[in-house]
């Protein structure tokens, strides 16, 4: 769809332009849907919820935007005045208790950013048991933004229900101002250094991946799946101690373990992964809803003698360089190819609804339970999301099934867990020398071939 005649175009970030292009390549896919599904126990009246949604869309301008193709073929963001969508109320039939499955299917309903970029679906199970599914296109949201939307929606609901004003919040930065600041940074001395630095880092370095991946495979809608792994409960404490002793962050240690898992699974010894990082440290962005992410490359180099400690220090250095240039977006000639594999960390204690990722929590007089439905599957060849909460670390490996078999990603997840544990047991161990089969399992397998 092309822009409306007379509409005043607004600005877009470099990251939004990349996402718009990704949408054009697969317009029927839901891989760019960012989904937050929450089960709400307690009465959730329809009229106050509708008023809260109106206030939510009024507060966050990107929810009122549409993204179209301009006359020159380039993307255009068009803000809309007076746009006030209604909640999509759906009655759950008696006997239908698979609320998780229903929420997952809602999250897989595609969004057309030329028409709508945000949808609130309300699954009414019983009068005191409802599921809210917030679905946003990645053009206007990220993981933190989704939780901000939930917080503001429930704040508005409680205010409308109780007949009082919503709690005062700082106004989010206007999106055009955020984009202009990005453009100013790109034109600054730091931006010029970034443009000179990143092509040198990436020159001749292949994108990290698995040898069994079917490169160039035809992609289709919903061609994704997720493998989940939980790190042992004591990992957080051990990781904090071991990484501190090596002078690196816990995320740098986990990043190195992931790079090592790719290498030990047959990947290249010299390769790069993309690391999406938040730009919410910039003025006015704490309350902003949008795609506030820059992705930068981190390169790994392995040989027969590389230890976990050395790999973690290299990853730490790469992250430090990326953070130094954060806010000056990486725009590379073949960025889509380079960032086929990405990894990120989400810390639950930094999200605006406390306890949401830890299990049941109370907010606005309602009992909330996260329904962690699969989402963003197939957006890239492989996207690893590590979530740190009070319960420890959960690892989601989202992949494109047109590129990798599910069994391959499952094995990669097992290898990652094995290497994390081995690295914490002996940080100085050679990565190439770590057996990938548990000693007890190996003894059992050998016994099968020994005969009776």
Automatic annotation (TrEMBL):
<dbReference type="GO" id="GO:0031177">
    <property type="term" value="F:phosphopantetheine binding"/>
</dbReference>
<feature type="domain" description="Condensation">
    <location>
        <begin position="12"/>
        <end position="445"/>
    </location>
</feature>
<dbReference type="GO" id="GO:0008610">
    <property type="term" value="P:lipid biosynthetic process"/>
</dbReference>
<dbReference type="InterPro" id="IPR001242">
    <property type="entry name" value="Condensation_dom"/>
</dbReference>
<dbReference type="GO" id="GO:0005829">
    <property type="term" value="C:cytosol"/>
</dbReference>
<dbReference type="GO" id="GO:0009366">
    <property type="term" value="C:enterobactin synthetase complex"/>
</dbReference>
<protein>
    <submittedName>
        <fullName>Peptide synthetase</fullName>
    </submittedName>
</protein>
<dbReference type="GO" id="GO:0047527">
    <property type="term" value="F:2,3-dihydroxybenzoate-serine ligase activity"/>
</dbReference>
<dbReference type="InterPro" id="IPR023213">
    <property type="entry name" value="CAT-like_dom_sf"/>
</dbReference>
<dbReference type="Pfam" id="PF00668">
    <property type="entry name" value="Condensation"/>
</dbReference>
<dbReference type="GO" id="GO:0009239">
    <property type="term" value="P:enterobactin biosynthetic process"/>
</dbReference>
<dbReference type="GO" id="GO:0043041">
    <property type="term" value="P:amino acid activation for nonribosomal peptide biosynthetic process"/>
</dbReference>
């Amino acid at each position: 769809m092309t822009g409306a005649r007379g509409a005043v175009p607004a600005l877009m970030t470099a990251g939004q332009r990349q996402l718009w292009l990704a949408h054009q390549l697969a317009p029927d896919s839901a891989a760019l849907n960012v989904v937050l599904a929450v089960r709400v126990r307690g009465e959730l009246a329809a009229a106050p919820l509708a008023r809260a949604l109106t206030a939510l869309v009024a507060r966050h301008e990107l929810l009122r935007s549409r993204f179209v193709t301009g006359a020159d073929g380039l993307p255009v963001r068009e803000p809309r005045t007076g746009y006030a969508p209604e909640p999509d109320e759906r009655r759950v039939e008696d006997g239908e208790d698979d609320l998780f499955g229903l929420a997952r299917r809602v999250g897989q309903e595609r969004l057309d950013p030329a028409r709508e970029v945000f949808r609130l679906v309300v699954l009414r199970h019983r009068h005191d048991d409802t599921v809210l599914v917030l679905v946003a296109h990645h053009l206007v949201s990220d993981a933190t933004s989704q939780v901000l939307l939930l917080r503001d929606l429930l704040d508005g609901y409680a205010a409308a229900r109780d007949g009082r004003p919503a709690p005062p919040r700082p106004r989010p930065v206007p999106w055009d101002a955020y984009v202009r600041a990005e453009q100013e940074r790109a034109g600054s001395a730091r931006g010029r250094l970034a443009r000179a630095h990143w092509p040198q880092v990436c020159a001749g370095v292949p994108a990290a991946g698995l040898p069994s991946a079917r490169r160039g495979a035809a992609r289709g809608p919903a061609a994704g799946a997720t493998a989940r792994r939980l790190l042992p409960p004591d990992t957080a404490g051990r990781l904090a101690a071991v990484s501190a002793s090596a002078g690196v962050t816990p995320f740098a240690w986990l990043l190195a373990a992931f790079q090592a898992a790719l290498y030990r699974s047959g990947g290249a010894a010299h390769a790069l992964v993309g690391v999406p990082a938040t730009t919410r440290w910039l003025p006015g962005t704490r309350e902003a809803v949008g795609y506030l992410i820059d992705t930068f490359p981190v390169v790994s180099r392995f040989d027969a003698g590389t230890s976990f400690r050395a790999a973690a220090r290299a990853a730490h250095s790469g992250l430090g360089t990326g953070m130094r240039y954060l806010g000056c977006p990486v725009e590379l000639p073949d960025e889509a190819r380079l960032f086929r594999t990405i990894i990120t960390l989400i810390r639950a204690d930094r999200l605006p609804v406390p306890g949401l990722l830890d299990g049941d929590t109370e907010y606005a007089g309602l009992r909330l339970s996260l329904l962690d439905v699969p989402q963003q599957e197939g957006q890239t060849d492989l996207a690893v999301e590590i979530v740190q909460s009070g319960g420890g670390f959960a690892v989601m490996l989202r992949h494109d099934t047109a590129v990798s078999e599910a069994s391959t990603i499952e094995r990669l997840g097992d290898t990652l867990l094995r290497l994390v544990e081995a690295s914490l047991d002996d940080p100085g161990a050679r990565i190439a020398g770590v057996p990938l089969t548990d000693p007890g399992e190996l003894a059992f397998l050998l016994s099968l071939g020994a005969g009776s």
